[in-house]
Amino acid sequence: MKKILVLLLVSLIWNCEEEKKQQKLEVGTYRAVLEVQDNEELPFIFEVKSPRELNIYNAEEVIEVDEIEYRNDSIFIKAPVFEGYIAAVFEGDNLKGSFIKESLDRIVPFKAIFKNENRFDAKSKPTQKVTGIWEIVFSPESEDDAYIAKGIFAQDEEKVTGTFRTTTGDYRYLEGVMDGNEMKLSTFDGAHAFLFTAKVLDSTLEGQFYSGNHWKEPFVAKRNASYELPSANDLTFLKEGYNSVDFVFPNTSDELVGLKDDRFKDKVVIVQIMGTWCPNCLDESKYYADYYNKNKDSDLEIIALAFEYAKDKETAFSRIDRLRSKIGIEYPILLAQYGTSDKAKAQEKLPMLNHVLSYPTSIFIDKTGKVRKIHTGFNGPATGEKYIEFKTEFEGFVGELLAE
Description:
Order of helices and strands: HEEEEEEEEEEEEEEEEEEEEEHEHEHEEH
Mean pLDDT: 93
Strand order of the largest sheet: 4-3-2-1-9-8-7-6-5
CATH class of the largest domain: Alpha Beta
CATH topology of the largest domain: Glutaredoxin
CATH superfamily of the largest domain: Glutaredoxin
Number of strands: 25
Helix content: 10-25%
Low-confidence stretches: 1-19
Distance between the termini: 77 Å
Number of helices: 5
Shape: globular
Largest sheet: 9 strands, antiparallel
CATH architecture of the largest domain: 3-Layer(aba) Sandwich
């Protein structure tokens, strides 16, 4: 018995010594950098509130992170909901490591410097001003890959904020600087890491868009204060001969759920095509979860179809449950596909649609089961007025369907 007590005492002392040795994040601000292509750096700022809590900042966006784990000399930081995580070791008060997305086999070099609050270091005073609306084309030289966007920027001295809206969503809260005549913007949310650089003339932009270290493409732009993108309600539609949709997919308990179930009969139903890996889907899911919780006593149901790139069903189920738990989703989320988020494959699961152009996409179904509208993409909070317009249109249209 004495030997056991001695061993327990020695073990406790050893564990306490190890705890003392374990280095942890210092309270304060860090400048983080991801290494992308062309020797470019993608910076973002995070502020440590305690050794297990930090905030990531992108313009007006604040992402609260509370999944921080310490193992020996390493630290693992995971943003809410998304799969990606940072794995790093301490170098003094600084960090060095990688941003990792295992399902996609992507690793991006990462470092963070303590007590540095400058996202970008502007070397020159701004010689151009980008405030306003820009008509943009990404990959302009490619017939197959070109797509349009709307740039919305605001500049205060050298600081620039804004976003790019496309026909399928937006590129989140962007923050950066005007360095001479070069604009630099970045964002990091735990899922996507975006960097935009551009040479600016009075009425034109020419630049590069970097997504992590696996993708880059050029873009060009011209000022156009009246520029608007095509209506998000006209891009996806039912094929000729269809007036409804139908499907059966498993929930995370592996129980099959379909639109013909009693729960959805004689109800207004919104079908949300989404993925747990998709930031625009997260924005939309937060809004839908709040709206549903306030209106679930009405004749309204929401059902989400998750298209996941997780390599197996169990991992996909786990990510769906994590999303539901994190943001309080009470409507069902079904696993429509795993192993890929390919939109052509997604369309095969919903063959009545002309295509699946975007994650997210919302299908509005009336009480008789007829599809009344399909909305492609989602303009999130970073788009300002467009986000407010979406909410107004959404609530008005759903109200009309409920009143029928």
